[in-house]
């Protein structure tokens, strides 16, 4: 499977796990849900951390930077699907810009002159 598809899938799964974990805290503190929401939230955050270790990048910092672009796109999809907040044109333009930056990080000729 090409590195773009593998990375995209890996980072998308990691983003879903991180967002779900963080949303569990949000639900507890902001929406008045039971603290039991923190149990699956903690598991999701642990899964997120493990998934990032499977990054094709040799350096954690570069992996996290690449992940950031994917995270932004998945966050907007989460907001639309879970919270009913459709992204506007500014959200989509910003996400496209971040995704373009993430692709530069992934596909750039690092260390080659």
From TrEMBL:
Give its localization: Cell membrane
**Mind listing the UniProt keywords for this protein, alphabetically?**
Cell membrane, Membrane, Transmembrane, Transmembrane helix
* Membrane spanning stretches: 9-29, 35-52, 64-81, 93-111
Which InterPro entries does the record cross-reference, listed alphabetically?
EmrE-like, UPF0060
Q: SUPFAM superfamilies from the entry? A: Multidrug resistance efflux transporter EmrE
What topology does the record note for this protein and the membrane?
Multi-pass membrane protein
Taxonomic superkingdom: Bacteria
Q: Which family does it belong to?
A: Belongs to the UPF0060 family.
Q: Write the protein's name.
A: YnfA family protein
Say which species the protein is native to: Bombella pluederhausensis
């Amino acid at each position: 499977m090409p590195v773009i598809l593998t990375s995209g899938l890996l980072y998308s799964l990691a983003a879903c796990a991180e967002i779900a974990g963080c949303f569990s805290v949000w639900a507890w503190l902001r929406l008045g849900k039971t603290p039991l929401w923190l149990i699956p939230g903690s598991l999701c955050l642990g899964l997120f951390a493990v998934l990032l270790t499977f990054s094709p990048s040799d350096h954690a910092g570069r992996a996290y930077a690449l992940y950031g672009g994917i995270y932004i796109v998945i966050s907007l999809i989460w907001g639309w699907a879970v919270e009913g907040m459709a992204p506007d044109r500014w959200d989509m333009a910003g996400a496209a810009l971040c995704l373009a930056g993430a692709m530069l990080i992934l596909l750039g000729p690092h260390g080659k002159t």
